[in-house]
Design brief:
Length: 890
């Protein structure tokens, strides 16, 4: 047998093993191939170069291929997970290729034969399930896309979002314009789609900022074959039970299943049935706004410092994942929001119950992820232990609430926990030992006394070990040396070892009748005896029998757990939902938050609002956050607040805090305010901060304008719009004009509730012309040149910008500051001679200006189209009649 990647130089033919490697690698060209060789996974050629760079491990060479050295590196099997984690986090995909038979089996087929190997799974960022590779607090999903031509010639996208680690399976159908936003909300770790979709440059540039690699998946599957794939996977006869799924959704769900099968190599994770995301019910937040508001991650991509990290008091990873989902997709349905707030209120008013529930939940393990590993045959005894602990926790929680009148959603979740009848818990409890190991091959996880056959094999195995100890004692006496020891190694098995001098004695009669020489070492000799060999065989077979029996019992128990998978999944969801309600109750109590009122009006009245993240960071420095009010409500349409004030006065914080309060309220959380009354927001838009998007070749100003365009084209009366310093990225007059026209458009056309922070003081004059425009300013105390920012919002307009003052604070050289003061005085004097404000009175409003464009003149257009030289007299007469008729209509 040849297990070395040498190659036959003369014929330049690869060795049989290399031929096998090349064949497997060419079937998985987009993956790094982890090729199992004994206790190592080895990588060859380019894979070895990539992996050694990424993992910082040594690159060596092993044999030759077509005359050149084969680069090689390897990772030990027992540490493979660490290396996988690093490779996956760098966006690589890995095909794990295992030995499918014992090398001894291969040897039987002849000297040249190679151990059978096969890829048993693909490890990709969106399909991992191992506890070590997963972030407990984040979903780990991939998204599959499909698309259909819509009647208007554009595309309709089907989107399936699957988290193999928890079984979650959601589908949606979205238009081309909404796709990026929807994906930003779902935060998949990987996106898969048919090759034609992956090749669409316009789409890929839209998805570029999502930080999820795009994987091509052959041809798009739609229609009949997509339906069949779903039916087969879920073992059902019709899709009717899944709710009304659209054609694009079915195609995307089928693509997702194809990808699951491809990466899991036929193993079936316990996926829930696909359910439609019902997009109309959630607050739409576009991708830029999600990033800008730092909802689940900061601009730097970290969880710490995001809204989610600041408010997350959940006790379980599944709860943390659900909270992230709620923040990413707040509801727009006042009834559902009220029910969720009822549940939070319930926990606010029951602190003791809340504390006890949270203590039980903190001990309850991650059921969904344990279940998923068991269904993929990747689970171990510890996963069974987790299910047992979860069932016990569910029982305790049900008992805790048995004499309690709870809010309706809480009662509903408790009912989900009550489904377990105790049978499964008893089955696991009687079989599984305490504190079971992670890996089933570690053994000793089935409880003593449960299975007679197992107990007997174990007793024999353990007894034999005791027999060895007494045998050693006997041989010490027989050989007349205390230096005799019975040892074990993999090569010889059990053997007797004595120092060289004693060994010489044992080679001679009468000892040689008992002791058979095996090995001579530098200063020791090794022997065996017939008795020892027999004992060895007995121990090995007892240990084998014990392991075999234990694994069979494991499979039996895992089967019993999987038979209840649907119930256990509901139980997992129940835990997560209760955890979120109780955690939000804890948060509201600890931070003194209030219950918001959300209805279907156009109100937006926040009293004493605070920015949760800025407040928390100020608190850590012993500083106090100044609370501020906000009122954008109006019976017919939203108000627009133009916020002026110096740099560093707190404008951005104020804008963001109001958006965050709306998100929190609609996510079903209490809010950082004295009171809040909101008409549910349907879409939230923001244009804040300025970041170049050089990856897509856009300048700061271009990004700003693209985002502003999206807002002006899409916002409606139920939307909330936040615009921070529109137009500052260009020349003053261009910027002012754009900001001005934007406000007019928002007021006249979008009619949305909006906050508009600006340094263009001229814009504060617009209130004279627009009824729903209000001016707000950040208060500043200016006492004898000493400027103090109060961070308080008040009605009115700022009188100056204090920009030069901030520059001074920032440490600009004194000479530059003095010169800037002088130039500012000059400019202000010039502005007083020709104030821009005057223009406000002279220019018509946006809507009227748009109307004022000269109307089309049909008569003139017809006349211009006539060529008299080309007309016959009859045609000339007809044209004359036509002109007369048009003139009569005009
Ligand atoms: N309400 C508040 N109470 C206390 N401190 C605040 C408040 N609002 C903001 N601050 C502090 O002031 C700093 C500046 O706030 P912010 O970035 O919102 O100012 P800004 O007016 O938008 O400035 P610029 O115009 O330069 O962007 C914040 O980092 C925070 O520390």
């Amino acid at each position: 047998m040849d297990e070395k990647p040498r190659s036959d130089d003369k014929a330049a033919r690869p060795t049989p093993m290399m031929a096998q490697y090349i064949e497997i690698k060419s079937a998985n060209p987009d993956c790094l191939l982890f090729y199992r060789m004994g206790d190592f996974y080895e990588l060859f050629f380019e894979d070895a170069e990539t992996a050694s760079r990424a993992l910082g491990i040594m690159l060596t060479k092993r044999g030759k291929h077509q005359g050149a050295d084969i680069p090689m590196c390897g990772v030990p099997v027992e540490r493979a997970d660490d290396y996988l984690q690093k490779l996956i986090s760098l966006g690589h995909r890995v095909a794990v290729c295992e030995q499918m038979e014992d090398p001894a089996e291969a040897r039987k087929r002849g000297n040249k034969s190679v151990v059978r190997r096969d890829v048993v799974r693909l490890v990709t960022p969106g399909t991992i399930t191992e506890e070590q590779l997963l972030d407990p607090a984040r979903p780990n999903a991939f998204a599959a896309l499909s698309r259909l031509r819509a009647c208007d010639g554009g595309w309709r996208y089907g989107l399936a979002c699957v988290d193999i680690s928890t079984g979650a399976f959601d589908v949606a159908e979205v238009g081309e314009a909404e796709l990026a936003g929807e994906l930003a909300r779902l935060e998949p770790r990987e996106i898969v789609a048919a090759e034609a979709i992956c090749a669409d440059a316009r789409l890929t540039s839209q998805l570029a900022h999502l930080d999820a690699p795009l994987t091509a998946l052959g041809r798009d599957v739609g229609g009949e074959s997509a339906t069949r794939r779903l039916l087969d996977f879920f073992g059902v006869a019709t899709l009717e039970g899944f709710g009304a799924l659209g054609e694009a959704e079915i195609a995307a769900a089928a693509a997702a299943i194809l990808y699951v099968e491809r990466t899991q190599k036929g193993k079936r994770p316990a996926l829930r049935r696909p359910s439609s995301l019902r997009r109309s019910a959630t607050l739409e937040i576009d991708a830029a706004t999600r990033v800008n508001l730092e909802l689940t991650r900061t601009l730097k991509g970290e969880r710490d410092g995001s809204l989610l990290a600041t408010i997350d008091m959940t006790a379980t990873p599944a709860g943390a994942r659900l909270l992230a989902e709620r923040i990413a997709a707040p509801s727009t349905e006042p009834e559902l929001i009220a029910q969720r707030l009822d549940a939070v209120s319930f926990f606010v008013t029951a602190p003791e119950l809340r504390a006890r529930l949270r203590a039980i939940l903190a001990r309850a393990p991650d059921v969904a992820r344990a279940l998923s590993r068991l269904s993929l045959q990747r689970g171990g005894p510890r996963d069974l232990g987790n299910i047992r602990a979860a069932l016990a926790a569910a029982r305790e929680i049900v008992a805790l609430f048995s004499a309690q009148e709870a809010a309706s959603l809480v009662a509903q979740e408790i009912a989900e926990l009550a489904v377990s009848d105790g049978e499964l818990e008893r089955a696991i409890a009687t079989r599984l030992a305490d504190d079971p190991p992670l890996d089933k091959r570690a053994g000793n996880f089935i409880a003593q006394g449960f299975d007679a056959e197992l107990d007997e094999a174990r007793a024999l195995r353990d007894e034999s070990r005791r027999v060895i100890a007494s045998l050693q004692q006997r041989y010490v006496e027989l050989a007349e040396t205390k230096q005799l020891k019975i040892k074990h190694n993999n090569f010889l098995g059990f053997f007797i070892e004595v120092p060289q001098a004693q060994g010489e004695r044992l080679l001679r009669p009468p000892f040689d009748a008992v002791f058979t020489h095996r090995q001579t070492m530098q200063d020791a000799m090794r022997f065996s005896t017939r008795e020892l060999a027999e004992l060895e065989a007995k121990i090995a077979s007892a240990a084998d029998r014990a392991q075999e029996r234990e694994l069979a019992l494991f499979e039996e128990l895992a089967g019993a757990v999987l038979a209840r998978a649907q119930e256990l999944q509901r139980l997992a969801q129940g835990f997560a939902a209760l955890d979120v309600f109780a955690a939000l109750g804890e948060l509201a109590t600890k931070r003194d938050w209030t219950r918001p009122h959300v209805d279907s009006s156009l109100d937006f009245e926040i009293i004493g609002g605070r920015h949760p993240v800025v407040e928390a960071s100020l608190e850590a420095q012993g500083k106090i956050f100044a609370a501020n009010d906000c009122d954008l409500g109006d019976a017919r349409a939203g108000k627009i607040a133009v916020v002026t004030g110096p740099n560093m006065a707190g404008k951005s914080t104020y804008l963001r805090q109001n958006a965050l309060i709306a998100i929190l309220a609609q996510a079903g959380s209490f809010v950082p305010a004295k009171s809040a009354r909101l008409g549910a927001v349907d879409r939230l838009f923001s244009r804040v901060g300025a970041a170049d998007d050089l990856a897509r070749g856009r300048s700061t100003f271009m990004v700003e304008m693209v985002e502003t365009a999206a807002i002006l084209n899409c916002a409606g009366p139920r939307s909330l719009v936040i615009l921070d310093e529109i137009g500052r990225g260009t020349a003053t007059f261009d910027g002012l004009s754009i900001a001005w026209a934007t406000i007019e458009h928002l007021h006249e056309i979008n009619r949305a509730r909006a906050l508009f922070a600006t340094h263009f003081h001229e814009l504060t004059q617009l209130t004279k012309r627009m009824g729903r425009l209000v001016n707000l300013t950040m208060k500043v105390k200016d006492h004898a040149g000493e400027v103090v920012f109060l961070h308080e919002v008040a009605k009115g307009a700022a009188d100056r910008s204090y920009g030069v003052h901030v520059a001074e604070l920032a440490g600009l050289p004194a000479s530059v500051v003095a010169r800037a003061h002088a130039i500012l005085a000059e400019l202000e004097a010039a502005d007083r001679r020709a104030p821009v404000e005057k223009l406000i009175d002279d220019l018509p409003l946006f809507a009227r200006a748009a109307q004022a464009a000269p109307p089309k003149d049909a008569l003139r257009e017809t006349l211009a189209a006539i060529d008299p030289d080309a007309l016959t007299p009859r045609e000339a007469l007809a044209a004359l009649y036509e002109l007369k008729a048009k003139a009569a209509r005009a």
